[in-house]
């Protein structure tokens, strides 16, 4: 992965961006599936409204789950955050292994419109493919994750509506209004498949509800401590370490 990122000129750029931004954040989550730790999600990023952001994320299965199905996702993203907190992606690189397929891709945004710079291995066009030029204003999956999971000031939790495009598929990430539960804040959300998925995938499931739980951090900000979600493999949780 590192060698591949260097070839597309991203590894050094992301590292330099993270090192040069004062407000760097990082988080580690355990992926718990049906009560068993099945993997981990980690990310590190930096960026504030009115400036640029850079983030890297890694998701992988572990333990018994990895014996059944190895899944790995390693990605980097860069872009800009507007003064109102709106994210605009500029570049995204992904190295993924879903257990069914392995792929590497690079995508850039020009004037808000994504363009696929490379996708390996090459594949034949599908009837349900999404035209990237129709995806103006979208962000990549890692940018969406970063926007949702990073620490926020009290009162800024939840209330997100993000349109995503990963180079092949378009989807939506929605977060509703915050609800106070003691010192914590909970919001209901939904991941929704929109287009670019096979007919079988769309027939299988299009809506994946989840809940996001925030708790006060040591720095006075609210941080996501748990994500509880429905998956194709049953109930799952991301629990912050």
Automatic annotation (TrEMBL):
Q: Which InterPro entries match?
A: DUF3108
The protein's name in its UniProt record = DUF3108 domain-containing protein
Task: Tell me what organism the protein belongs to.
Answer: Gemmobacter lanyuensis
């Amino acid at each position: 992965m590192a060698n591949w990122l260097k070839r597309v000129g991203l590894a050094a750029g992301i590292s330099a961006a993270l090192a040069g931004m004062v407000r760097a954040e990082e988080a580690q989550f355990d992926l718990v599936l049906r009560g068993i730790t099945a993997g981990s999600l980690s990310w590190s990023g930096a960026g504030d409204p009115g400036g640029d952001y850079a983030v890297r994320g890694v998701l992988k299965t572990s333990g018994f789950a990895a014996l059944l199905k190895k899944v790995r996702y390693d990605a980097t993203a860069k872009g800009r955050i507007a003064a109102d907190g709106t994210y605009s992606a500029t570049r995204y690189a992904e190295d993924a292994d879903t257990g069914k397929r392995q792929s590497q891709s690079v995508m850039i945004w020009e004037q808000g419109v994504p363009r696929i710079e490379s996708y390996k291995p090459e594949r034949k066009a599908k009837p349900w493919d999404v035209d990237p030029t129709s995806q103006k204003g979208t962000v990549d999956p890692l940018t969406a994750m970063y926007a949702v999971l990073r620490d926020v000031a009290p009162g800024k939790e939840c209330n997100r509506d993000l349109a995503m495009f990963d180079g092949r598929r378009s989807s939506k990430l929605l977060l509703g209004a915050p609800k106070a539960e003691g010192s914590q804040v909970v919001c209901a959300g939904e991941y929704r498949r929109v287009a670019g998925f096979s007919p079988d995938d769309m027939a299988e499931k299009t809506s994946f509800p989840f809940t996001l739980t925030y708790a006060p951090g040591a720095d006075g900000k609210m941080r996501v401590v748990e994500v509880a979600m429905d998956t194709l493999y049953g109930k799952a949780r991301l629990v912050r370490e």
